[in-house]
C-alpha cells in the first residue's frame, strides 16, 4: 500500500484523531500503555489462554505480541485498499485456533488487485483507490513458529468475495467491511456497512462510483440504490451475516436461507438495516452451542451514524431490521422516507391492474417504525383493501437501546406514547435510563466486562466509546437487554476503535487510534504493580556524556514507597537513587547506544520497568522540507498532488542508514485526521480541497528521519486552503437536505438524470474576511444576474442558508462571479472566476426487464437469471422442448432458431420460444462426432459446442445423425458456415461425409462457425414423407495449449529450485520456484515473467516463461552485544564473540544462582524466553534479571571437604562419588535453602547408611558442624537417597517448605593420593594491642573486599580463618602467622565478592582435636 490522498467524512471510521490528552479513568482505576508505536492498529484479540495478543493494523498487517515482543504473522498490504475509511478492519481467531490455526480477515480490496491479480498487468506496488471495489473475507492457517506463528500464503481461502460480483459492494470511500465474531454456536458473524455516500445516497449518484460498479458487475441494477442497499434482503451491504466458517455459505436457520442456493446473499443474512456497524461483541452467557437452534447469541453493536445520531443496537434474534436509512437512531430520516425508490426485489402484484402504475413497492412501504407489539399491517399502496403479499419481506423497525446526537447531544432512549414510538432523554424525569447527558459523532461499539474486580456500577456492564468525542462510557443492562444507567468512564482524550478483555487477566483493553497504542484500564488494589517513569535531561552528545536521570515521577497505584534500581546499560554498577546522574563513556569515537533501564519495586515486591536510550557520540539528522513550501496554499477547485522532498544531513551516518517517515494530516478544528505513514524517501501526497467555511481546515506534512542510532528529527510544514480565490460548489436545494453535491469546475457536465435532485443552486466560495458581496453573471441556455451580500453567496440566492431551487434547462453555460470588498457589489473587486459548464438530461439506460413466454410445451432458461438487467448486459436464453415437442424458433424481440440465444439488454424486451409437437413417425434426435480413424464415437455434438482440433484425439472426423426410429428411409444433411455440404444418406449409419460399410470417411473441418440440419424421410434418397429435422450450431477452433517451457536464471550468488522439476509443463499447471541465496547473499526479487519478492513463488504456466532471481551481497556491518545481570545469575552467549555480523543470531541463556529465578530480559530485548534468540541488527545491550525465590525450599546440595571446610562440588541426583578420587574421604553434605536462612532443615538419609538429623542454624549440614567447621563422615560404598525439607521454626517446627530429594551412589575404585592445599599467611597491619579488647573488622562495609581484623586479646598462637557466604558456602580459608601485632590484613579482593553479607570465622589454635573447646569468634562482614 502506497501513500494515499487525505479526505474527511464526518462521523465515519478512521477519519478522526485527536491531540494527545490524558485518558483518565475514575478514581480507583489506572490506565497504562500495554504496547505503543503501531501503524494504525484497529483491533486486538487474545488466544484462549490470554498468553498471546493479536493486533491488526488498517494497512494490512497482523501481529502477535508475546511477553511484550511483537512478531509479524501476516502481511496482505498489497491486497488491502487502505484509503479513507477502508482497510483491514475485521479479524478473528477460530474458536479452535489452538488446534487448527485458522484466522479470518475482513477488508476492502485494492481495485488494482481485484482486477489484475494473477495477470501480467498486476504490480504489488500499484494501487487503484477512489474507485469501485469490494469487501472480502479470507481465512489463513497459522502454524506455531518459535513463540509466534508463520502463515503459508497458499493456505488462503476466500469465503466472501471470490469474484468482483460476489463481494461486499463498495461504491464510495467508507463503511463497507467492519467486524468479525464467532457466535456461541460456532457460526461466523460478519458486520457490513452500506458502502454508500455519507450524504443521502438514493442511487444513480454521480458523486459515487456506482456507475463504475454497475459496469464492472460489482453491483446489480437493483442494487444501485445507495444507502438503501441496507434494506435489500438479497444483498450483502448493511447487514450482519451468519455464515459457515469453512465454506462461506449461509446457515440453515437464517431467516432468508435458500436451500437451493446457500451461497446467495439472502442465505447469509441474519439482521439488516445498518449503516456502519463498526464493532460488535457477544453478550456473555447468551446463545446455544447448537447451530441448528439458530441462536448464535446476543450481539451488541455500535452503528456509526450519518447526519444526526449515533447508536448502540442489540441483535437478539434473527430477521431484526434496524431501519437504516429510513431511520437514523430512534428517529425517521426524512431524506429517505420522503423519497420514492423502487425495491426491485418486491414486485407489486397489482401492477397494471385497476390503474396501478407502481410496478414495485417503494422501500418505505416495507418498513414501519417500532410498535409496542412489534407487529404492523402493511397495506398495498395501490389498494388499501389489500395487504402486501407475504412473499415480500416486510419489517417493523428494531430501535437502538440508546442514541446520542452529534455534538453536544442529547442522549436518548426509546419509549412509547400509547402505540406511537417516542423518545426521552437519558437522566430526564421519568426516563428509564439514568445518567448525565452526552453527545458524540462516532459510535465504536464495545465489550462486556465479565470480571468481578471492578466495583459497582462498572462490574458486569457494557463499555463503549465514541472516538470523535474521545470518551468511554459504561451501560448497565438487564437480562432482557433493557438499559437502566449510562455512566461516564473516561471523559476525554481516548480515541477508541476497539475494545477487548483477556481470558488470562483482568482489566479492560482498548485500541487508542492516535497515538496508535494498546491501553489497559485496571482497578487499583494492593496487588497493583507500580508504574515506572524514566526521563533524562539529555539523550545524545559526545563522550564523556554526563546525563541527569529522573525516576521520581514513577508512581505506586496501591500506595506506599518505591525502591529504585537503575541499570545504565554500560556495564557499570547499578544505582538505587531515584534521580541519579551518570557519565557515559564510549570505547571509540563511533556512535554507540546505551539502554538505561529503571526498575521500580513496591512494598509487595511487584516491579515495573521503563527504558531510555542514550546515544553517545551521535547527533540527530538535520532535516529541511523543500517541497511543499511551508504555508503554501492549496486550491479548492480540485485535488492537488504535491511532491514530497527534503534535504537531510547527518554527520555520523550515510544516507543508506537513515529511515524516512512522511505523514500527511488533515487538521479540522481541534482534532486531526492522519494518513498512514509513507516510508519512501521521495514520494508524493494528494490534498483534497477542504476549508474556507465556518470551520477551520488545514494540512500538515511532517517528515521524521531516524538514524541508525535511533536519533530522530521531525520537521513539519503547513498547507492552508486558498480562501482568497473564488470557487464554485453545486448545491442540492431540496428543502430537507441543502447539502453540497460536488465542486463545480470548468468543463463540468451536469446530468440531471443522475444527480440526486433536479433542484439545484450554485454557491461561490469566497473568503468572508475580505468579501462583502459577490456579483454573479450567468449566460447561456438561461441567464441570471444576482448580487449576494450575505454568506452563503448563492447564484439563485437563499433564505438563511436554505437555498432557492433552480432546475437548469439543458444546454451550455458560462458563469462569472466577482467578489467585492463592500456590500452590494461596491468597494474593491477581487479576482473574478469564470467557468463554462453544460447540462444534459440523459437518463442512465436501464435497468431493463426481459419477459420470456413459451408457445407449446417447453421451457426457457436464462443466464444470468435476474429481475432486471443493466444496459448492455448479455443474457443467454436456452429453449428446452418437453417430451414429444421440438423447438422451432424465437419470436417477439428475437427471431431465428439459434439455440442458445444471446440477447443484449438495450431496452425492455419480450421474447417467445415456440415448441411444436413432434409428428408420430420419423425424426433426427441427435448428432454424434465420430473419429474417422478408429470409427469410434468421440462425443455427442450439442448445440453451441466448440470443437478444438488441437485437443481432439484426431483431426479426421465425421458427424453421424441418430434417428427415431433407428432406421429410416434416408437422411438429408445441410451444412453451412465455414464449409458447406449437402448430402443424402439412405443406409445406416447416416453420416454427413458418408461411410463405407461403417468405416467413416474423414473430414477435417475448417476453423469457423457452422450450422447443421438433418431431416429424415420415409423413403430412400429423400423420398416419401419428411420427418422432424434437427438443427444445431457449433464452431471449430485450432488452439494448441501447451506444453510450455520455464527458463530460470539467477543474478548474483544463489540457486532456484523448481517443483515439479520438468522440461515442459502442461497449460494451466502450477510450478513453485524457491530462491535460496548463497552465504553472504540475500534474495531481493524476481524479474522477467514475474516480479515481486514472494518466495516461494507460484507460477501458472499459460505460456513459455523466463524468470530471473536476483541475489544481492549482504553488507558486512558488525555490531556489539553487551550483556548485564540484575540479581544473582549468569548469562552465556552462543557464539561468544566480541562482535557479530549484521543479521546474525546470538543465543543468550540465563542461569540463575541458587535461590534465584530468572524473571526476564530488559534493554534491547523484553520478555522471558530462555534461551533468547537475538538478531544482531544494531549494537545491543541486554540485561537478565534474577529474582530471589519466594517461600522456603531446599534448592540444592553441596558436597563439602570436612578437612578444609571447602566445597568440593554440587551434589545432583544420579551423581557417583568415588572416594578414591575425591580430595578427601572426610566429607559432609550441606543443603542450600531459599531464603538463605530458614527456621530449620530436617534431613533423612537412607541406603548404605542412614541418618535422621535436624539443623536449626546455617549452614545446614547432614552431619552437623560447629560455626561452619564441618564434622567428618566417610560414607560406606553403596547407593543412597537423601531428602531435606525446610521449616519456618527451629527443631523442625512451624510450616514445612518444599523438600528436595536426590539419589546418589558412592564407590571406591582407582584410588590415587590426594594432596591438601597449604595455608598462606596474609600480610597484617601493626596496631597497639589493648587488653580485653573484642574482635572487630574495619572498614566494614568494605568497598573492595579488604578488611583489617583486630584479634581478641585471649587468642594465642596461630589463628585459622574461614570466610563463608550467607548461605554457608566456604569462600576462603587460611592461617594467620603468629605475630606480635593483634591486627591482621585479610585481602579477599581476588575473590571478587558481590555486594552482600559474609561471615569470618576465627579459630585459635592449630589442633583440630581440641574443638570445640578452642576459642572461637565469628565476625559479620559487609561488602559494598
UniProtKB/TrEMBL annotation:
This is PKD domain-containing protein. The keyword Nucleotide-binding does not apply. CDD domains: PKD. The keyword Signal applies. Residues 1-22 form the signal peptide. It comes from Hymenobacter antarcticus. Keywords: Signal. Residues 530-619 form the PKD domain.
